[in-house]
């Protein structure tokens, strides 16, 4: 079981980097699975920017730990990942589009250690499984984008093309906004950090925290924006429940830093969706929903687990 706490002085076990569209988060896990060191840096867009950012974070971790980091590094990235070849495609949130990018080898050359590449949400799903103790777990990441990692019978399900769990690109509104994937009205255009920032722009600070605070204070517009956003998240949970039927569904990602108010509102939307459907209500999706512990770097910790085997 991964322990969501600091543990300086314990032996180094694994290193993980979570490269997101906004931030890159690196962790060093101790032998007991607890966090020995962690570093965050803003992610530079594009292939060269991603590699430069990863190097900055890795070097900062090495300075923080105070010893060489010679272990393999697990790296989680958004987009379609060919794990065997170490290739990345269609990571639109990183500014990486189109043809295969040999990111694993680029990072290994720059960091000077072996690198294991994995989709970021898949990596996080492994950490979510360790935290929950369940063998059938769906990890739903509500971050810059929207995607799910699937652990079925204790094993990651990546899919034939690495696209399993790309729930954010499921179209739900033919009259909706254009998605970065090229489709229209995808769930990601409703229930993601980017969508929320468009619907509730703030001059500084996380828009999610500001939105939920304004809604709690009774702001009518904030309540409408919050409810549509949480309906989108609940719709993703419903789709995952109907297709995977997992034991646990774990919410995470940057927007989940809102904490318990997010879970409460998503549960309310799930119960509303089931009001007209005894079948849907019988599935008890709201009762299977939990959240990653607040401020726990689940994707970076999962990337470290990928590297440690």
TrEMBL record:
Gene3D superfamilies noted in UniProt: 3.30.420.40
Annotated Pfam families: ROK
InterPro entries referenced in this protein's UniProt entry, alphabetically: ATPase_NBD (IPR043129), ROK (IPR000600)
Record flagged with keyword Kinase: yes
Molecular function GO labels: kinase activity
Family: Belongs to the ROK (NagC/XylR) family.
Protein name per UniProt: Putative NBD/HSP70 family sugar kinase
């Amino acid at each position: 079981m991964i322990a969501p706490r600091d543990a300086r002085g314990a032996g180094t076990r694994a290193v993980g980097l979570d490269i997101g569209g906004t931030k890159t988060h690196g962790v060093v896990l101790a032998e007991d699975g607890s966090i020995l060191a962690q570093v965050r840096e803003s992610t530079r867009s594009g292939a060269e920017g991603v590699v430069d950012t990863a190097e900055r974070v890795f070097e900062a971790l090495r300075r923080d730990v105070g010893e060489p980091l010679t272990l393999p590094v697990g790296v989680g990235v958004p987009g379609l990942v060919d794990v065997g070849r170490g290739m990345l495609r269609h990571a639109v949130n990183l500014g990486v589009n189109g043809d295969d990018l040999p990111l694993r080898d680029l990072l290994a050359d720059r960091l000077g250690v072996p690198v294991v590449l994995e989709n970021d949400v898949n990596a996080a799903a492994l950490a979510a499984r360790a935290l929950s103790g369940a063998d059938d777990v769906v990890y739903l990441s509500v971050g810059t984008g929207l995607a799910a990692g699937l652990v079925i019978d204790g094993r990651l399900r990546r899919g034939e093309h690495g696209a399993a769990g790309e729930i954010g690109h499921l179209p739900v509104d033919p009259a909706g906004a254009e998605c970065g994937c090229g489709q229209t009205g995808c769930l990601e255009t409703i229930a993601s950090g980017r969508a929320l920032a468009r619907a509730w722009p703030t001059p500084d600070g996380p828009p999610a925290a500001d939105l939920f605070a304004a809604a709690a204070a009774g702001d009518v517009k904030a309540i409408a924006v919050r409810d549509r956003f949480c309906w989108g998240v609940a719709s993703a949970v419903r789709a995952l429940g109907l297709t995977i039927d997992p034991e646990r569904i774990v919410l995470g990602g940057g927007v989940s830093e809102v904490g318990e108010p997010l879970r409460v509102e998503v549960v309310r939307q799930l119960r509303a969706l089931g009001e007209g459907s005894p079948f849907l209500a019988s599935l008890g999706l709201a009762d299977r929903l939990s959240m990653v512990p607040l401020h726990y770097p689940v994707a970076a910790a999962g990337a470290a687990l990928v590297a440690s085997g």
